[in-house]
Amino acid sequence: ADSDGGSEELVLTPAQLIRSLEQAWLNEKFAPELLESKPEIIECVVEQLDHMEANLKRAKKGDLKVSVHHMEIERIRYVLSSYLRCRLVKIEKFFPHVLEKEKSRAEGEPSILSPEEFAFAKEYMANTETYLKNVALKHMPPNLQKVSLLKSVPKPNLDSFVFLRVLERQENILVEPETDEQREYTIDLEEGSQHLIRYKTIAPLVASGAVQLI
Hints:
- Strands 4-1-5 form a 3-stranded antiparallel sheet. A two-stranded antiparallel ribbon has the order 2-3.
- The chain has 2 domains: 14-155, Up-down Bundle (Methane Monooxygenase Hydroxylase, Chain G, domain 1), CATH 1.20.58; 157-213, Ribosomal Protein L9, domain 1, CATH 3.40.5.60.
- The chain is flat, with a radius of gyration of 22 Å.
- α3 (64-104) crosses α4 (115-135).
- It has helices at residues 14-30, 39-58, 64-104, 115-135, 149-152, 199-208; strands at 161-166, 170-175, 185-189, 194-198, 211-213.
- 53% of the residues lie in helices and 12% in strands.
- By secondary structure, the chain is mainly α.
- One of its GO terms (biological process) is double-strand break repair via break-induced replication.
- Residues 64-135 form the GINS subunit domain.
């Protein structure tokens, strides 16, 4: 804990850091929407990779441990690049909704975009608008030369179903009916259990880390 400012700083071991990255990666990979940005984890993982590579340079050549550590570095780099690539794909796919959510978030609410991702999303939207205007809209009648990207670009499908593993027991989770004849009901999620459930039902649990998408 920071005694001066009263804030708390989470300290992770290298193994815990990599597990946090893998958890963020799997959640991002299987969630239908863009999740909260994790810049602290990314920064720490990059620093850890640099540290690991520096240690390898000092190791004796021919040592079996060197090959093992090289493989581990490549594995971590793959997870990191896949995570970042997955986020960029979602930004490109849902950019107007992503920017609108970022614009309307409450003060103190975590951002879903890193500063770099925010700049990319704004540039992508500006380029899309310019392309549409130059290629199509300027050839349309004046009353049809405006288009709402928020209405034109599909939203993330929060009603899609996802697989999850429960990390922390949860009680009284409200489940919506599948048909009009059914009623809402609640379920308990036992630690270690696995479920197939509608994403928007458990979206807050993904954000809090209580469940892991798989």
